[in-house]
Amino acid sequence: MNTRELQKTANEVRKGIITAVHGGKAGHPGGSLSAADILTYLYFDEMQNIDPKDPKKPDRDRFVLSKGHAAPGLYSVLAEKGYFPKKDLPTLRHTGSYLQGHPDMKHVPGVDMTTGSLGQGVSAAAGMALSAKIFGDDYRVYTLLGDGELQEGEVWEAAMFAGSRNLDNLVAIIDNNGLQIDGNVADICTPYPIDKKFEAFNFHVIRLEDGNDMDKIRAAFDEARTIKGKPVAIVAKTVKGKGVSYMEGEAGWHGKAPNDKEYEVAMKDLERIGEKLCQI
């Protein structure tokens, strides 16, 4: 896809996020919206051999949502890609729905790893990457972490493991929107400097100054593909709640669903963005 098509797709993914969380009357919109551009780029450009008609294709690239609470973002991009009907998004968290509050690989087509407990996803991703090395497979593994998630010790155990095993088929993306459920990550238990910490664990670090800019996202992943002998960490500066006026930069929208009026405002915001993208 070209940049404009990716931007339009990301905007549709954001609509799906809002639709899902509003329908479920619960969920995590803020960190889903901040990561929507990266998720869109991964599924519509970066990852190879992924096929909605064959979700378990052996040679597919893998994606692990380590910050599993951003499930609305993953579900929306999977629905947009065609893994399951978009009409199912509003059933998020409903009793009997396969779209649980956190991703479940046994029930959701396209989900490569069940996640939710922070820190465990990146560990699983490192294991997948090692497996590919052992068996001579050439698939790549991508995992998305939250910056608040970096407060989990297991993240750094996984980083030490990946760095020591030279897993250059592993790309960890940190959604650095600066906010977690309790407020500013720097005030709660600072993970900074994120780049230097990953470098200390033998990662090649790419500093993505605007993780909501498709061209910059493309450049970061293009660079990641050139790295040999080291895993890659992309530290992506993003805006929590990106695309919805009243959610942007607000920690309060980490894990709260919009009411009917707020839903209408959010969808109008996204409709305006979509219209602007069509005019450019």
UniProtKB/TrEMBL annotation:
<keyword id="KW-0786">Thiamine pyrophosphate</keyword>
<protein>
    <submittedName>
        <fullName>Transketolase</fullName>
    </submittedName>
</protein>
<dbReference type="Pfam" id="PF00456">
    <property type="entry name" value="Transketolase_N"/>
</dbReference>
<dbReference type="InterPro" id="IPR029061">
    <property type="entry name" value="THDP-binding"/>
</dbReference>
<feature type="domain" description="Transketolase N-terminal">
    <location>
        <begin position="8"/>
        <end position="264"/>
    </location>
</feature>
<comment type="similarity">
    <text>Belongs to the transketolase family.</text>
</comment>
<dbReference type="InterPro" id="IPR005474">
    <property type="entry name" value="Transketolase_N"/>
</dbReference>
